[in-house]
Amino acid sequence: MASQNPMQVSELILKKECEESWKQVNRNQAVLLSQPRHGPVGDSQNALAAISQMKARCLQGEIDAVKAKKVKVLPNDPVILESLLKEDLERNVSQLEECLSVVEGRRRELEDDLARQKELLSQHQDMNRALESRLREAEEGGNTSRPNEDSQIKILKRKQKKAGEIQTVLLKQIGDFVGNHFPLPNASKGRQAGQINYISLLEIIELLMNKGMDGDTDPYVSIHEAFWPPYIELLLRCDIASRHPQDASRIRLVPLHL
């Protein structure tokens, strides 16, 4: 037996136990049959048949329950039992190690995210202190800084005008790029009767930008039939837009500056 596989040894032991149980069942049945019978022979045979059918149903129910639960019968041999328990323990340890690896990876991600948030907080605090300092200087300066303020306003107006010109050029370039590389469906064939009048990709981006910059607390835009689905998929795949966590029919512009 020492040269045999532990599973084979377990099967042999279980087989012997089953044979002993079957012999005991036969002996019990023989004892029952040897008992004196009361009543007509036909009634006794019918009763035995009914009892046998009931036993068969009970056994079948137990078999179905065992199959459903997938219960493993453990052998009585302590060596084989120890081997099986060791395998089960090693499998559980391996699963727990995998789970631990996932948890540690998630912890590292959270630590990195926390470090980034702390850095952003420090930058915002520095900016806040600088703005407060400039505000105090402006309040202390009073009317003496009026000429300087006028010159600064003129400089800002010139910068604003130049920024507006640059924005116009960039919007035109973006419009040409989007129109050439991401045209609307059947744009060259013209709009047919019953066809949905989709809006361009540039118009969708402008809607998202305006919604995010108008100061509203809700930066999400509802998707309607004028939005061509491939445009929405493109914005989502490129991380330009993101869906609402609770309403997939609404999207917003991703805050790329954060």
UniProtKB/TrEMBL annotation:
InterPro entries assigned to the protein according to its UniProt record, in alphabetical order: Centromere_CenpK (IPR020993)
One Pfam family from the record: CENP-K
Subcellular location: Chromosome, Centromere; Nucleus
Entry keywords, A to Z: Centromere, Chromosome, Coiled coil, Nucleus
Primary site of residence: nucleus
Keyword Coiled coil set for record: yes
Coiled-coil intervals, chain numbering: none
GO CC, any one term: nucleus
Record carries keyword Coiled coil: yes
A Gene Ontology BP annotation from the UniProt entry: kinetochore assembly
Start and end residues of each stretch annotated as Disordered: 133-153
PANTHER family tied to this protein: CENTROMERE PROTEIN K
Family indicated by similarity: Belongs to the CENP-K/MCM22 family.
Protein name: Centromere protein K
Organism: Strongylocentrotus purpuratus (Purple sea urchin)
